[in-house]
Amino acid sequence: MLRPRHRLHPYLFLAPTLAVLGLFFLFPLALAAYRSVFRWDLLTPPRYVGLAHYERLFASGEITRALGTTVSYAIVVVIGSMVLGLLLALAVNRTGRFVAFVRSCVFSAYVVSWVSVALLWMWMLDADAGLVGRACKAIGIGESGLLTSPETALYALAGVTVWKITGFSMVVFLAGLQDIPEELYEAASLDGAGPLSRFAHVTWPSLRPTTAFVGTTSLIVSFQAFDIVRVMTQGGPTHSTTVFVYAIYEHVFMNLRAGRASAMVVVFFGVLLLLTLIQLWAWRLGRKSG
Amino acid sequence: MTVDRRSVLRGLAAAALGGTVGCGRDPLARGRQSVSLWFSYGGKNREVLERMVARYNASQQAVYVQATFQGDYFEALAKLRTAIVAGAAPAMSHVVGEVVPYLHEAGVLEPLDGYPGASDLGLVRALAQEGTYTPMEPKPLVALPFNRSTPILYWNGSMLEKARLTVPDTWDALRDAAKALTNRSGDRVSTWGLECPISWWFWIALMGQAGGEVMRQDGYPLLGEEAGVDALQLWQRMVHEDRTMRPPPGRDYNAWQVTNQDFLAGRAAMIYTSTAFLRYLEDNATFPVRAAPLPGFRRRAVPTGGTFFVVMRGAPEGEKRAAWDFLRWMMLPDQTIEWATSTGYMPVATAAVTRLEREGFYVKSPNDRVAMDQLQHAMPWPWAASLFRVQRECVDPRLEEAVLARRDARELLAEARKQAIEDT
Q: Residue A163 is part of a domain; what is its CATH number?
């Protein structure tokens, strides 16, 4: 085992990373926590208000609403991108020029910017002029427009997000599928396993780490959602698409409330910390049982 | 020939530095007082402003104005506030009328009374700072009008003539006209009778027509009381009962854009939008575009809108003087005429209005006259620092709820009033 020549050496190696993390993550977070107890509009001097912002955010139901919206959006995005990504990966897990072309097409959405995707889908979802909007209207969904109705707007955004990130999920699942030894399938076939049985007993268990990775990355994307909301709905209609990050932006930049936005940042950090702890716990549990 | 690594790096650094310094530097700027202007006009209005700025820069040798587009009004305001805190604000910008009292009370605007010629700008009173607001006590001059507007009713000339309708001048007539103009086949609507962004400015217009006031003079939020409810109920009826009005998707300026697009595409027969889009709509429509004053209810009323130029108090003295020189030039009749006739905004100088009348402009272009005529019914805004927050936080989100989620208008406005009293 390698031993450091001086006990400070490991910390010196860690120092650059710690400095970057401290400067761009811990310091702003501490600053947000400090600012959250002031009423401050950036232009006039801050006024100490104690925990009033937290009280108001919880009492008005804003935190619950933003969290509920974000979680609903995340559920659709995570499940949608995982299921579609896996199905697509299974479909294109073969050789040939046409399959390679399909793979490239599906993945191409992932490399396009969020703003371009949002603008494209605003047009596609238009109830009168858009291909998807008109099709949905014809079958009785979102008659006044998928983005106009508070019942459908969030799911429309989640659908667009799934469309954009599924290419990434597909590629990761494809890598996972290609890592599964062929012998396992041969052995299962010799034991009389059919395609469904092979999927349930060979493919799916072997893809567990890949699935965890895809789930985590799409969850991160969901919790970071901003661009698509900013361009397509601006948090509306009637706050139905005001996800957490957008709510923070709206407070600080639109409503001129830096203190209240800071309080939301602190709460959001708490939520993310909790999610990370749950994930860590689940991972450790999985390792133990493994 | 061999090139060592150091000389390559040196060369690259010099090229990068040269590129940064030289990039975008207009040779006209050399030896002049440079001054930044942040603006929010897009499309045609942006072209007109940039043309005027270029003309100003070419017209004299002392000042060079560098105009930079900063997104829509709200985005630009967010950037401006952040830049003020960071000490990187431009010397001048333009901001929506509702935010001027807040910025003044925050102490970031330069009082302009002392600058040469400030007392005799010859501005149209209803559009200038003194006529736009009703302060409890006199305030220093901190805002100069330029792109000022009122909401007006636009209608598709062909559709109205085909339906043999006259221009609606009351709310009842508006509902009837919208019913007659809506083209529905089963559940599919190919033409909506009316389209209007569900937004503060248009609600203020309706609330004013129903006889309400947004605030008492001391800043206490009334939100029109029963008149505010009447205004919201008009929208609710037209959207849900008559099914003749399409609430456009999106908020803020997205909704405005969609309204314009629907009108141009023939999907809306009548729209409420700003006079600012007059030229744009006329230039792009394939049918005759007609404009009319907003229909009245208990009275005629319209809010004024658009933005004011402001100079930042924290800017260096030289830049403030240069900014004043530019703004003074922009207030002259030639410039206000160019701006108004190229865009649809109202000319802010009285001499410009007189000249346009004398030259027969309003006879040749009667649509331009509509907003000017409506000025006699303009409602002044309260001078309240909270006005902007009342708009953004208390009222705007609830307008959407009333129209899209069909919540009780009275209850919603009571909530908005409570929030405005307790939280702004």
A: 1.10.3720.10
Q: Which residues of B touch A43 (CB under 8 A)?
A: 81, 84-85, 103, 106-108
Q: Please state the ipTM of this predicted complex.
A: 0.77
Restricting to B residues 103-132, those with a Cβ less than 8 Å away from any Cβ of A are 103, 106-108
Q: Is the Cβ–Cβ distance between B420 and B386 less than 8 Å? A: yes
Asked if residue B23 has pLDDT above 70, the reply is: no
Say if A166 falls within a structural domain.
yes
- Tell me chain A's radius of gyration from C-alpha atoms: 23
- Min Cα–Cα distance to chain B from A93, Å: 41
pLDDT bracket for residue B19 (50, 70, 90): very low
pLDDT band at A290 (very low <50, low <70, confident <90, very high): low
Cα separation of the two ends of chain A: 27
Q: Which helix H or strand E contains B416, and what residues bound it?
A: helix B409-423
Mean pLDDT (chain A) is: 90
Q: Is the Cα dihedral B67, B70, B71, B76 positive or negative?
A: negative
Q: Does B16 touch chain A (CB under 8 A)?
A: no
CATH number at residue B277: 3.40.190.10
Cβ of B143 under 8 Å from any chain A Cβ? Answer: no
Assign B80 a pLDDT band (cuts: 50, 70, 90): very high
The alpha carbon of residue B352 is apart from the nearest alpha carbon of chain A, in Å, by 36
A183 touches chain B (CB under 8 A): no
